[in-house]
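1st attempt posting a full record on here, be nice pls
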Amino acid sequence: MAANPGRTTIVRRSIGIVFSDGGLLAITSTLPGGRGEHGDERVVAVLCDPDAAPVEFEEALLSTEYGEDGVQRRATLELWSHPEDGRPLRGAGSLISSVRVERDGLDATIAFFRWSVEGREGLGHYEVARTGA
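the predicted structure (as tokens):
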């Protein structure tokens, strides 16, 4: 990854969580055409409970705290099934370890996180892919 993360552009963020009860949560965000600002991201989130049909959220908010080295350290989630429902599904995760991979002009930091979403504990990854500015 570039020595100065401020000189790169995040083009994709991806989260996959496996809960201790067997449920799964997947979130992905991309910048249209790899260009734009943080607010321009297209975010998709799907929750799969062990004994229920998948639920896609209409709005997904992902906030990330990065360390000085550019590695994602903590993240919070707000997932809204219907904005008028009044209460989102909330969760947070924290870093266990991470690895960096550089290929074909794309630098990815894959972090392994411990997650808690509405009291459900889980483990998963949080990948951030960047390209040069």
